[in-house]
Amino acid sequence: MAIFPFILLKSKSFKKDPEIINHEKIHLRQQLELLVFPFYFLYFFNYLINLFKYKNHDRAYRNIIFEREAYDHETDLNYLKNGHWYGWIGKI
Prior knowledge:
By secondary structure, the chain is mainly alpha-helical. It is built from four helices and two strands.
């Protein structure tokens, strides 16, 4: 979980998983792009809309625009270096 400016992990073993770390770093960038607080508001609001739409927690969570960007690019360890700012907008 990313709570600016920290990444919180369930297990120490996750520190060695570059994809999990990259996923959470993408969230940190999203938080910076929206000046932190609006990110949390939009994240929660998007989740509620998705929950109403899908009526399923897992589908609602996975379809949050910020999660879609992070999951789509977590394996691309150069994604953040290549300057993809506001990539979540394309997921709307």
